[in-house]
């Protein structure tokens, strides 16, 4: 199999994951926010925020997943607006998702170990919503400069002529002060906030969470509330573990092996890394479906209600027409029966 065929196959996989991820993330948000009981769990509210951040990240992945495989055009390297939007969403979405997952892991660890935290901050949706909005706002301010300074035009003048040609380059940064800020601070800060800190914090919190879970298993206490808390704990541990395993190749490859790989592998490895990133940002729905019983029940209720509305909208006009027909038949029969005695009385007279 040639490298071109492998690239085509990997592009198809990226497109399929993209088409699955966007509606599944919206289903996560709608299902959690539509249930009063699910909204009382801090962890599930954080996962709703993570699903929204993952959806924003896929707007940054739209070049590799949709435009290039289906239309064969590189809109990131062709237009200034798309260059800045793709660069902004790809960083803003993934970093916000990682930060919310880190906060959710810390919150779960504190809920298991601190009674004061459990009494004061547990089951408070307004506080969780405020934290999510603060995180989105801070990340917006941190990445907003990409929409202003990213990309630029190169002007080339031909010898012996006064004509100039402008060529667009997405990697170009013409402001020298911003160029030093971008490469010396912003790129490193993005790597730390997206990879290093979440890896360290989630790993440490997961160790403490698992120790607490194993300690509680020895007590053999089984209640409905404890089973729900156990499911939420398993959810946060699996989600953070998937995050570390699926995003680690991206951080390791581009930092250490990006320049020393052969040309054939340079064409294939980025697709494989993007597939692992896509799976990470589309795994929330699958994890909730596997672990959370209440999420599955609420999703079934929402889907049945949606199908019922669609079914009723299609059936109601036919029911109205048939009811009108039946009403006209009944009225005609009543009129006919009322006329028969009158004719009989006239003939008898």
UniProtKB/TrEMBL annotation:
PROSITE patterns: G_PROTEIN_RECEP_F1_2 (PS50262)
Gene3D superfamilies: Rhodopsin 7-helix transmembrane proteins (1.20.1070.10)
Pfam families to which the protein is assigned, alphabetical: 7tm_1
GO MF terms held by the record: G protein-coupled receptor activity; peptide binding
Major localization class: membrane
Membrane topology, record value: Multi-pass membrane protein
Residues in G-protein coupled receptors family 1 profile domain copies: 24-291
CC terms in the record's Gene Ontology section: neuron projection; plasma membrane
Transmembrane parts of this sequence: 12-33, 45-66, 86-106, 127-148, 191-211, 232-248, 268-291
Keyword Transmembrane: yes
Record keywords: Cell membrane, G-protein coupled receptor, Membrane, Receptor, Transducer, Transmembrane, Transmembrane helix
Protein name: G-protein coupled receptors family 1 profile domain-containing protein
Organism, scientific name: Didymodactylos carnosus
